[in-house]
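ok so I'm stuck.
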Amino acid sequence: NRAQPSVREVLEELLSIHHIARNITHLERIPPRAACYAPFPSGLHPDVLVALREYGIQQLYSHQAQAIEAVLRGEHVVVVTPTASGKTLCYNVPVLSAVLENPKACALYLFPTKALAQDQYQELYSLAGATGKGIKLYTFDGDTPASARRAIREAGNIVLTNPDMLHTGILPHHTAWCRIFENLRYIVVDEVHQYRGVFGSHVANVFRRLRRICDFYGVQPQFICCSATIANPKEVTERLIDHPVTLISENGAPAGEKFFVFYNPPIVNEELGIRRGVVNEARRLASRFLAEDIQTIVFARSRMQVELLVNYLRKTMRRLGKSIGRIAGYRGGYLPNERRSIERGIKEGAILGVVSTNALELGIDIGQLNAAILAGYPGSVASTWQQAGRAGRSTETSVAVLIANSSALDQYIISHPGYFFGRAPEQAIVNPENPAIAASHIKCAAFELPFLDGEPFGSLDPTPLLEHLEAERIVRHSGNKWFWSADTYPSENISLRSASSENFVVVNLADQNRVFAEVDFDSAPFLIHTEAIYMHLGETYYVEHLDWDRRTAFARPQRSDYYTEAISKTEIRVLQIDEKHDYAEIEIAAETGSQERGGLLSEYEKLPTDTEYPLTQSPTDGPPAASDLPEHGSEKASRLLGEQVASSPPLEETASTSASLSP
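replied:
not stuck anymore, here's the structure
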């Protein structure tokens, strides 16, 4: 038996193959980095040190020590270091120490997804258990049974949840959570870089409501925040939590050598400038690594691409005489137990290759992979580094390959490597003062606690909105306070992420209508329209009917040599032009103002699984897709608050070289 080739050897082999090497536009070598260590800060509870040493941790990385020291000094902190640099200890250590010092102390951990909260729970559970002191920690999300919720409120020291549950399940019912709030020492906010745009602006307002309730209970908890690398971590964190923060950004964790390959597929249509598809190129390159048992992750741009690549790579594994069960997909729509099983399989090495949407871009612990293939530019420098960072989570050599598609953006990035490697990641934009968003949360805040006359909400004066709500008989003014008087429960009608928080379920008609998948509301008309081919865990299903009223798609297994792709048409209507600029002799005008955008599904096409060209186009049924821009309150409420905001920033920003591995 020959020895398994190293990542470097497989990459050298690829560079020796002419029809692959000629498509490589750039090869970047990122040298290894040695660890920088620091001793444990003084002031930590001895049992925490015992637990860490039981884990084999005899000292900390320098950024971990700096962060813990800042927390112990009482400062709000944001830690900004790359993937797999040990940011988790920056908050787990001081939180556990505080609970050991005072068994009544509580902490609230906030993660952007349920999956990440569940993943971090396992790590925290093991570390807390090693102290031997019976620290009580719980996850609290939409799947938490009612029977467990009372125990969490009455006994929990550490509650791991997400902003959505804080918004709908905790803040409106704060009197039931009074024990937690009265003893709240720390609020942990992980993956801060995810809180941008509309979502981040909502979360910033949720934090305003959280601080308001903390003031009511007489506590001032510290925020411990963590983020991947972005251009403005300190600024965006301070916008989110409305407190000055101490920035910790000097990474002390070690890193192995990494090779970053830019790959531009060959042109297949000179006239139209169309290149070979990223799905087929990703299959071809991933197969090379999988053939040598190199654990590989492929990031695809859509759920359909995930399922196609899973099918393709399983065929490759069968041809290589390897188990097809070692290839898995990972995306939204899989049931929670399926996702946990896949995560465990990746971490334990049972899964050799995983194809994922950006769902695995977050810090879920999936162990140490050796190769990452990005099937298309993720859309930002920050996301590209996040996905590439999924390979090389140790001191070993790793490789990341970015495959460009035919779009102008992908072609610019792949042809200008200096632009990518020479610039910092993008800024994250958060605008808590967005009038429509803030108006929604002022309603929620009024439901939770009465507003005092003159009490601000962040930098906004809510009085004009409260007066409007009084005229609508939603609040009433008595003495110097504004009380909620309507029968409605405002937070349940406000989604932090999209226009609708409802999910569709997909049932298997051949298995007693068993629910086997979930699809979010906005994706339903694209993925599970009537006559769609829906792919799930590598299997294909034919959707016989989509019932909009019951939020259910009825499907049955069907072997298919084609898949379907919905075609959407977008209409943009200019509402107002504020400025217009002409550029020299170029017949282009740049305008700023406001616009309205809406989407309509009209057709779907059938595409054969073995080529990239459509077979047929057919009309879809069903209502239009949800608007791309969610509604966040009435126009009247927006106008009342908008008059206070002078200007609202936008919610979100949206060459051939020779290849050598020599340092």
